[in-house]
Amino acid sequence: MDLKQMVGEKAAEFVKDGMVVGLGTGSTAYYMVEAIGKRVKEGLNIIGVTTSNRTQEQAEALGIPLKSVDEIDRIDITIDGADEISQAYQGIKGGGAAHLFEKIVADNSDKVIWIVDDSKMVEELGAFPLPVEVIPYGSQQLYRLFEDKGYKPTFRQDTNEELLMTDAGHYIIDLHMERIERPHELAEWLDGLTGVVEHGLFLDRVNTIIVGSESGVEIIEAR
Ligand code: 5RP
């Protein structure tokens, strides 16, 4: 079985009757949403909170009852993919351009589970380009700032080679840093930049990581 499918289906087992469930975005989260949709058809009673238009369309098609993040008090559990997870269990997300909504949903969740195949487990972050979501106004100035810092920025493009527009109407600048030695310092700096809406560093946020490899599924309790 595909490793993404394996961890997606495993994660769906963490969902219990009556829960409010954050539904992540990406090719791994896709399988988790499919598995939850199957359980809903069999009688599971949950409310889903989606993290992108893509996941919303998938969940609606599966008949998963949905509410927006603003309509619920608290999310019991959020299951999402990740692009890189370091040995300290810090993460980069946003390869699917959904990290703004994903971070909002994660920050309102009692428990966060990441589902990945073992290729995503790394020693330290940075080989995967770090996504920074910015408002269009002034984005060239931010681009120049990142360039001056040596962060090798690129604007994310869509399949038509136009500037990619996120679900919230922003651009993404990817930083090709190769190594992020001090992720907390970088996150703090990015948080303080005017025009930056959100970055893909997800620090001290994950509780449980489900890793799929050829030898099976490993469940890591991160915090
Ligand atoms: C979307 C994300 C995804 O969770 C991340 O990119 C992993 O995606 P995939 O499971 O397709 O590798 O952060 O913004």
**Helical fraction:** 25-40%
In the predicted model, the low-confidence regions spanning at least 5 consecutive residues are: none
What coarse outline follows from CA principal-axis ratios? globular
Do you know the CATH architecture of the largest domain? 3-Layer(aba) Sandwich
Task: List the ions, cofactors and other small molecules found in this model.
Answer: ribulose-5-phosphate
What does the largest sheet look like? Answer: 6 strands, mixed
Radius of gyration, Cα only, in angstroms?
Answer: 17 Å
User: Separation of termini?
Assistant: 29 Å
Give the helix tally.
6
Tally the structural domains.
2
Structural class: alpha/beta
Output the CATH topology of the largest domain. Answer: Rossmann fold
On the 0 to 100 scale, the average pLDDT is: 98
**Widest sheet, order of strands:** 2-1-3-6-12-13
Strand runs, count: 13
Pattern of helices and strands: HEHEHEEEHEEHEEHEEEE
Percent strand equals 25-35%
- CATH C-level category of the largest domain: Alpha Beta
